[in-house]
Amino acid sequence: MQYGSLICTERRRGGPVWEYRWREPGPDGVRRHRRIVVGPFSQFEKREDARRAISALQHDINHAGKRQVSTAITVRELFDHYRQRELRVDNTSKTSSTKHAYEGYIAK
Question: Whole-model pTM?
Answer without folding.
Answer: 0.54
